[in-house]
């Protein structure tokens, strides 16, 4: 059995006080979600102040990015050791916004996943095709390249904690969700690539989250798909009520 993960990506939103209010409102609403792993990813600066707020709750903290070096002359970067120190236990890596606006490639994503695993932080490794790639019939080719590139040189034992998030770029922040069938087809394909890399047992265990305009209204259908093990949620994670109802999809 794969434990579902519902993760909220807060992107460039929420100051310290706003983040604290959101967590305080969210915690009682998800107190009965023991069957679900709950993660929220605030901006770096807010992480330490959320540590006492999430203590004793079901909520875990993630960062939205990590640099691959541990320390050094890398102005503006943050290492996995520093993220652990700040209270994160997960980190989102390779989000499409980072690939699009900050020049991330399969190679940099790969270095970041390795750095996270060494932290140790649990990587939430994001992949997904653009609309142009889907329309050109290249979805599987892109996903295979991203999975294999992101995981290059990572052995089976090291891979075990990795969470994969399938986020079709055309569905992020657009209100257009992939249909349940489109998402299931992509997830099954990704699981197949993991099986090719690490074997059937590892593929059976890896959690693959769907991301792209997940809302309380569509989460149940997505979660009913056999290869969808959770959600990475952007917009709908910024309000306690909507994120809680996504977390509580099974109730
Ligand atoms: C995301 O940022 O990972 C995301 C899926 O955003 P949204 O839910 O707003 O589409």
CATH topology: TIM Barrel
Please give the alpha-carbon distance between the first and last residues.
18 Å
Mean pLDDT: 97
- Proper CATH architecture: Alpha-Beta Barrel
What's the count of strands?
A: 8
CATH class assignment: Alpha Beta
Topology of helices and strands:
Layout: E1 5-9, H1 16-29, E2 37-41, H2 47-54, E3 59-63, H3 80-86, E4 90-93, H4 96-101, H5 106-118, E5 122-127, H6 131-135, H7 139-150, H8 156-159, E6 163-166, H9 180-198, H10 200-205, E7 207-211, H11 219-223, E8 230-233, H12 240-247
Helix pairs in contact: 1-2, 1-12, 5-7, 7-9
Describe this protein's structure.
It is found in: Cytoplasm. Involved in the gluconeogenesis. Catalyzes stereospecifically the conversion of dihydroxyacetone phosphate (DHAP) to D-glyceraldehyde-3-phosphate (G3P). The structure is a single chain. The chain has 251 residues and is an alpha/beta fold. It has one domain: TIM Barrel, CATH 3.20.20. The protein has twelve helices and eight strands. Strand 3, helix 3 and strand 4 (90-93) form a beta-alpha-beta unit. Helix 1 packs parallel to helix 2 (47-54) and helix 1 (16-29) packs across helix 12 (240-247). The longest helix has 19 residues, at 180-198. Bound molecules: phosphoenolpyruvate. Phosphoenolpyruvate (PEP) is lined by residues 9, 167, 172-173, 211-214, 232-236.
